User: Which sequence fits this backbone?
């Protein structure tokens, strides 16, 4: 995450205030010293411009609006966001540290592509955390919330049928996080968002070759049914099965791409 602003309240002032027996206390030297410190530790906005840019880019990554290996040019991003290059650069380098973007030689920045091993590692973590988020959300999900989730799933199915794949990826994100965000566990949500920030771009490879397929019915329908029944065991099982069964063709596709020598430029 972007570094938190420096504390310039009472605690921050205490860090730069002289000790009671300071020989310059109350003197002109003390005034000059405090003025210099104030210049160094001036208050800043609670949410800086670079933080806002970071969150916009983070959201696009999670929703699959940026693709693996897609190049990001600072000037183009700055023009699109209506800002200077400096906050964009700060946000982009934070995303590099997060593992969502990568810096190639000569300051070439692109969306990171996961290897099969990296994808499987993240999937194993998701298999633990996403069922937990869903189970904890169950106590906060009412009939209206279930209808919202059902509507997101309907958008997903309709987009897939129309071969409108970008809206399908977004609808899938809205379905899952429409549930997880209701868990009341902000630390868990932050972890999941960080994982999806890295996985989201890869989901562009779902279609058409890695299209999710289910042996009986879509696991989203099983998730919705479990929510209506208030069935915790069934809910967590359906979340796990959606990741495994729904992602089976996707995994085969990226394995094939890697076997064919998907180039690392």
Assistant:
């Amino acid at each position: 995450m972007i570094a938190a602003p420096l504390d310039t309240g009472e605690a921050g002032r205490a860090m730069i205030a002289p000790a009671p027996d300071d020989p310059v206390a109350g003197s002109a030297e003390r005034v000059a010293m405090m003025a210099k410190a104030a210049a160094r530790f001036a208050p800043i906005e609670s949410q800086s411009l670079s933080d806002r840019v970071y969150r916009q880019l983070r959201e696009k990554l999670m929703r699959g609006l940026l693709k693996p290996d897609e190049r990001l040019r600072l000037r183009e991003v700055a023009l699109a966001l209506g800002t200077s290059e400096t906050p964009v650069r700060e946000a982009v380098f934070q995303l590099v540290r997060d593992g969502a973007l990568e810096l190639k030689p000569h300051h070439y920045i692109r969306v990171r592509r996961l290897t099969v091993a990296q994808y499987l590692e993240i999937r194993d973590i998701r298999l633990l955390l996403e069922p937990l988020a869903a189970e904890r959300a169950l106590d906060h999900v009412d009939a209206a919330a279930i209808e919202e989730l059902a509507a997101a799933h309907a958008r997903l199915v309709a987009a897939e049928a129309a071969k409108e794949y970008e809206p399908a990826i977004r609808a899938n994100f809205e379905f899952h996080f429409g549930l997880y965000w209701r868990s009341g566990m902000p630390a868990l949500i932050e972890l999941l968002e960080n994982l999806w920030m890295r996985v989201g771009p890869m989901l562009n490879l779902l279609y058409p070759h890695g299209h999710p397929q289910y042996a009986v019915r879509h696991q989203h329908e099983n998730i919705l049914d479990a929510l209506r029944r208030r069935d915790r065991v069934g809910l967590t099982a359906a979340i796990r099965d959606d990741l495994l069964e729904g992602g089976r063709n996707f995994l085969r596709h990226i394995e094939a791409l890697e076997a064919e020598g998907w180039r690392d430029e």
About this structure: The CA atoms of residues 18 and 25 lie 7 Å apart.
